Write the structure tokens for this entry.
Amino acid sequence: MASNVSESPVPTISSDDPGVTELFALLAYGEISAFYRLSADAAKAPDLRGKVALASMAAAEMGHYERLQEALERRGVDIYQAMEPYVQALEDYHASTTPSTWLESLVKAYIGDGLAADFYREIAGTLSGEVAEIVREVLSETAHSTFVVDEVSKAVAASPQTKARLTLWGRRLLGEAITQAQYVAARREELADLVLAAVGDINHLVELFDRMQEQHEVRMEALGLV
Amino acid sequence: MASNVSESPVPTISSDDPGVTELFALLAYGEISAFYRLSADAAKAPDLRGKVALASMAAAEMGHYERLQEALERRGVDIYQAMEPYVQALEDYHASTTPSTWLESLVKAYIGDGLAADFYREIAGTLSGEVAEIVREVLSETAHSTFVVDEVSKAVAASPQTKARLTLWGRRLLGEAITQAQYVAARREELADLVLAAVGDINHLVELFDRMQEQHEVRMEALGLV
């Protein structure tokens, strides 16, 4: 049976593939930048409950970061050096998608994290045991997304204008994420090789992006956005 | 034998004392405000290592917050409502001690957390089993303070000016903490009663402040400040 990522994939990438270090480093800086984005966005929280919700989400990202730090240390890698090449792309993503309202912050936390999780989960299927486990662990959804879905769908149901604005915002997040992913792929060869090896070939990569788009739509609907 | 907090104290305050809810609520908002202070201060970090260290410290505060939230829920208390009376005092403390440099941020994280921990630990000795355990747990020192001690003592050893400035800063932190503690004590009767019951009487309260001052000096010395 051919290895096909859209069916049930079999591990094809060994844990000492150099791309694994790159993947962990990218994930690690992703957690750090998400931490700072969430804690800065919380300043716009309308009440204590929202402030606490975003702080808890941010803290969960650091828990994941520490898991990756541990994994990189076991590989003998200096995490700070390893993260360096990914700083710019992630900062650019956040700079180009700075929320201007509290609701935009919530949509970004939910949609952005979801997109990243979809992508890494697709890759995880072809990674060997322990590596796949770490990737899945650091992407585990937190209970806090319920808070986001409740807040956003309530606001959207109450105002067609809010709905229209947030729908555009959700699309823009997808676009900016793709832009930065392409930037990273073009500059980090070992990571790009790992992704290609994970999906099989270019055709399967296109299918992967289609599936991500579908998952994105499912999340937009969960928020009451179309 | 008389109950004396400076010897080995025996639990004198039952877990259903209304002051316990107040104490948990104060501790809980303390964690939230520390989270936001640390994550905002991290913007001044000179490198990725510093940025990560402060984010980890902030995340640890949220872990403690969640422990307190759980404890308050078990007591049938709405944590958001319970924290409300403490928001102003803690925000005022942070507003009056906003660090203007990275080193001031580090000193504040270390000295401020230490002062709070000393105070709560003194009280914990007279609280009944489970309550005392929660208080001690959320005050447990994190491994991150080693980072602070290293960074600050290195900078202080290299520059007498830095040393002089940070010594004044450390004193100011103590002064502002006392100011806000007095403000809280004057306004929250049940909490003030709990503290007095915990220490025994006014004379013992004075002794407690003397011990806190001594502990403060020990921490200042650990940072290379006199």
In short: Chain B has nine helices and no strands. Residues 1-8 of chain B have pLDDT under 50 and may be disordered. The domain at 18-222 of chain B is CATH 1.20.1260.10 (Ferritin). Chain B touches chain A through 25 residues (CB under 8 Å).
